[in-house]
Design brief:
By secondary structure, the protein is an all-alpha fold. The chain is built from 5 helices and no strands. Helix 1 runs antiparallel to helix 5 and helix 3 crosses helix 4. It is found in: Endoplasmic reticulum membrane.
Amino acid sequence: MESGNSGIGNSNSKSEIGKPVITLICGTLVYYHCAYRKSSLLSLLADVLIVLLCSLAILGLLFRQLNISVPVDPLEWKISQDSANSIIAWFANTVGAAESVLRVAATGHDRRLFFKVVVSLYMLSALGRLLSGVTVAYSALCVLCLYMLAENLQSRNICLLVSKTR
């Protein structure tokens, strides 16, 4: 068996499975806060900022006691130019693709696309009348997380099959 290519114990595969799980946990907390507690998003944001501030204060006190220096100045934090460019490019491509689809649908040049957009918007409107927006958003988040988990597990199984055949 080759070392490092087996897919088992690979830290990248663990983080790929962890992303949908963490997203689902965060979504569940947002859903609980907004749907069951009947609180607003502004209240949720304030609660999150309070928890972050208290956590950072406790960590700061702990690091001070352990004599660990932590860069506090955000100008000392580094992000590579490639990372910044890829984030901006992804955002620009997403907005551009959505704008392009809506423009083509609105002009009526592609009747199929036009009817798909109209039916999708009508279904979302009907769904919005039946359920609250928070419930619909949480359901979509759950489906997205299940899709991400299935995709990661499938790629992990493919890696395991490839490593077993070698």
